[in-house]
Amino acid sequence: MFRIVSHTIARDLRLALRRPADLASVLFFFIIVASLFPLGVGPEVDLLRQLAPGVLWVGALLATQLSLPRLFADDYRDGTLEQLALSPNPLGLMVLGKVIAHWLVSGLPLALLAPVLGLQFDLPTDALWVLAGSILLGTPALSGIGAIGAGLTLGLRGGGVLLSLLVLPLYIPVLIFGAGAVDASVSGLGPGAHLSLLAALTVGGLAFAPWAAAAALKIALE
Amino acid sequence: MFRIVSHTIARDLRLALRRPADLASVLFFFIIVASLFPLGVGPEVDLLRQLAPGVLWVGALLATQLSLPRLFADDYRDGTLEQLALSPNPLGLMVLGKVIAHWLVSGLPLALLAPVLGLQFDLPTDALWVLAGSILLGTPALSGIGAIGAGLTLGLRGGGVLLSLLVLPLYIPVLIFGAGAVDASVSGLGPGAHLSLLAALTVGGLAFAPWAAAAALKIALE
Amino acid sequence: MHWNSFSDFIAMGGHGLYVWGAFGVTALAMILEPWLVIRRHRAVRERLARQLRAEARLEQAP
Amino acid sequence: MRMIHWFKFSAPSTFYPLAGKLIPWFWALFAGFALAGLWISFFVAPTDFQQGEGYRIIFIHVGASWMSMFIYLVMAFWAGMGLAFNTRLSGMMAQALAPTGALFAFISLWTGALWGKPMWGTWWVWDARLTSELILLFLYIGFIALTRAIDDSRRSDKAGAILALVGVVNIPIIYFSVKWWNTLHQGASVSLTRAPAMASIMLWGMLFSAFAMWMYAVAVALMRVRTIILERERHTDWVRELLLDRS
Amino acid sequence: MLEADNLECIRGARRLFHGVSFGLAEGELLFLQGKNGAGKTSLLRMLCGLSPPESGEVRWKGASIRKLADDFRADLCYLGHLNAIKEELSPLENLLASARLAGEDLAADDALDALAQVGLSGREDLICRYLSQGQKRRVALARLVQERRPLWILDEPFVALDVHAVDWLVGIIGAHLQRGGLAVMTTHQPVEIPAGAVRVLRLGA
Amino acid sequence: MLEADNLECIRGARRLFHGVSFGLAEGELLFLQGKNGAGKTSLLRMLCGLSPPESGEVRWKGASIRKLADDFRADLCYLGHLNAIKEELSPLENLLASARLAGEDLAADDALDALAQVGLSGREDLICRYLSQGQKRRVALARLVQERRPLWILDEPFVALDVHAVDWLVGIIGAHLQRGGLAVMTTHQPVEIPAGAVRVLRLGA
Ligand code: HEM
Ligand SMILES: Nc1ncnc2c1ncn2[C@@H]1O[C@H](COP(=O)(O)OP(=O)(O)OP(=O)(O)O)[C@@H](O)[C@H]1O
Ligand SMILES: Nc1ncnc2c1ncn2[C@@H]1O[C@H](COP(=O)(O)OP(=O)(O)OP(=O)(O)O)[C@@H](O)[C@H]1O
Ligand SMILES: [Mg+2]
Ligand SMILES: [Mg+2]
Known about the structure:
Chain C has 62 residues and is mainly α. Chain C is built from 2 helices and no strands. Chain C starts with 5 loop residues before the first helix and ends with a helix.
């Protein structure tokens, strides 16, 4: 059972490494989004500091979300997904593997990068740590929920945009608790409560989402 | 010469109408981004009003940008692009047609929707008009520049994210002048200068971009 | 010469961290880059030579 | 006649050994300029009465900023030559320059940030010049990412060329941003038309370090282009001879 | 072993086929014929359990494949119109990855051997995007070399292959039947499978 | 009319072919042969001007196709491995749109007629996603019915077609040659084109 998960992770990671441009590009998208806002909003430092948690979390969310359409699309297009569905292992486990691999190449690097961008917004050091932590905790839930959306929109033309439509509303709780944690830390309250809610979302998401996504995939293949 | 442009527009519009989900999704993405920010940032009205031009423009920009990867990808995958390149008409004109069609199903509806979202941020009426006008004027440039990026990244795996990386930096002037126009109108200065700069960008973009994009497409097909 | 001592020189009138941070990272980058380039050049030469030798051998022994 | 010479040297097989001979000279020039520049920056230039010792960052900051823009222009020039005349070497030059240009853009940002903290009290402001320099870095990275993502060298040269040419518009924006927008960042203090606004010794320091960086950029780019030439020309007879003889 | 009982397939307003029944025993090949659009692909996907029949049932070893689920799939090897290979992996990596994901262990040597058999020696490490149409198909077919599951379902396996490759594939399928395997296959090209019992089913008028 | 002069093709480290030269006159068919990966598709794309040859030149009516550019393309009809049809348009819409984008006017009646000839009557308005593999290929081939340009370049046109459709296509190509057209074609299936001069070019050892 764990072997099938780890094989899937290994394969997906290898594919991801085969095109390092992808990984880099998710990160740069994050950087660019985080840099667009100040340009649109204007350069006042105080205003920007207030905005920072929201902007960075929205950026992380959009960056994750951008890489979702390809979670299953490649496998679908070239027929691999059919083969996976026909393999004698539970499809849910393979989806779990794919979700974990997706997190490793999106959520994890985003969490590492976020504090650097936080500096641009002049966030205090404490808040930077909380920012990284909250993104680390929250992104697995994003990958999991995203997998459901990616499964449901698979093979639909314009799936990419439809996908955002389905997934972003489900991302809102993660966004609220995530940005909330950083806000709380900036304003001197402890971020603990928010972080534990985030952790709960992630555990729930990872336990439940792969199976829902697997069901969606089976429908897409019919 | 104009016939080939209009034929291309007609075909692309028909395809777009065949999947109305797409059009709807661009709009909903815009709505969702514009609604995520208040959630991430918090509900103070004054703060939000200050943010509005930037957030709405960034939203419009990301929404346009999201629909770019499919500008040529479908035609490439199913072989239509080869056929276009082999047709005895200048490829640049067909690209121009595709760019205009893209604008008609992305930029135009965004401009119509933007004032409604502006209301959510409590923008004054004048500013709402300027917002709609600036988006109307600026988005053709976005579609044009986007076409270059879409052509350059065509057929590359992970092209979608690479595309954002290439295109978003080039979008920044449009963003600055666009959001600047709204800002200027909010703060009582006239938006005229910003708007004419936007118009200049658009004219330049539409005159030049299709040919650059066509060159990129020919390279992708080699 | 307006430095009274070596520690004065390091302190840079209180801005030592900034000045040395700037010069240090620049120096580091300008050492690292050529080093990487040279290393890659050597690796490429070796790899290509190996490949070409293998090819030559294949051609000689049909 | 000119043209013939030009095409002769733009043949990779003649350029490769030529570059090999030139590289040491550029390193030597680099060393000379760098020593002179460093000497001026630390031992000749006086303490600034306003900014204290912190201003010594200027000696790298300005040079790196200039080079980051200049290298982009050169890169775009090569790229355009490649598109127009279909010379193989041009694309290789463009690709060899990009990482060095990106490095200088990064150094400009880094030193600027380290200067900004003591001077303006913040690492970063969203000022037009700073922002456009950041965009320049993104453009370099975009160019590198694009050319790496395409593995057919001919295609990647052409695609990169289009991107480089499109991105050129950013350079005047960076340069004139201080004039166009009223910003925190310093305006141009070196100009050909009017007398230098700063002490001439500082000007010399900046010029020396900028020349050092220039020589450095040429040397590194030549080294890199030699690697690229080898990789791309590995099937030609001259590379075969070159590699099989020596090793 | 494999039984189809009164299968019906409806697509849109069209009834593609109905009352399709057959039984297939060990060592037998079912050759599905019919003109373009007759419903061959649709029937094969039904036999795999990918799409449910409108009415009727598919049975494997006497039990419904819906119920058997994973147990049925463990006995099945399906090869569709699409190749199921990743364009950015090499043939070798593709073969290893697909074996692993199907829950099997394939040694690298065996994989190399299989690739050599399908005529891809020298291209084991070239990414598949650069392969020709026929070479891509060969990568997909290389799976069959080591495949020991009893039921093969092949949808136009000969497409894009040159004559040598067609001969090779015919041999592989023959060997599979000899071992007591079952196969269901479609193709528009005239081929001769040198095997025991070939049964033919024509779909459509 | 069509001349290839000493063409060379390099892909990655491999020289696929070199010194390929031929001339093709009116009413002649060039039958390109070679095993999978020999470079047939690559050569056809070169003849179209889609990818430039490493060395050598393609000439049409005596002038280089690089120079002729649009004038050459106005005489050319290319049909590749891919069908160039939109899955969300119907066969009729596909046919009309592709004719228009190629700069030709096709009357709806003629288009319907062409679709009927390729055996798609009754499916003119079904979107192409639902068509079977062979039916999609037929939509792509329907272009040829009305096609009067002199040079046809066809890359494995018979793939996925059933026997009837193959016969029909053979007839269409024959008629084109009879009219004085030129054609270059590859296929792995054995077919007989009933036409004047068939020249054969084998790529690869
Ligand atoms: C990350 C932050 C910064 C960036 C990206 C940046 C960027 C640049 C660029 C691109 C130039 C060259 C443009 C030209 O010569 O016209 C430049 C020059 C210069 N910068 Fe900065 N800068 C930054 C921070 C600073 C700071 C904090 C200061 C000092 C308070 C400063 C002072 C100067 C000066 C004096 C010049 C030379 C202007 C001239 O003589 O032309 N910069 N910078
Ligand atoms: N929604 C629909 N409405 C009407 N007909 C449909 C619909 N969906 C599919 N069809 C028809 O169902 C058939 C599907 O056939 P299938 O793909 O199984 O054919 P096939 O026998 O495999 O053909 P080929 O030899 O071309 O591969 C086609 O004739 C198609 O036109
Ligand atoms: N980068 C590369 N490195 C090495 N070989 C390559 C590269 N790109 C393509 N090739 C080879 O070039 C050939 C391309 O062949 P092409 O597609 O023209 O073949 P074909 O004759 O049409 O074959 P098929 O009958 O299978 O369609 C293949 O053999 C492929 O392996
Ligand atoms: Mg079929
Ligand atoms: Mg081919």
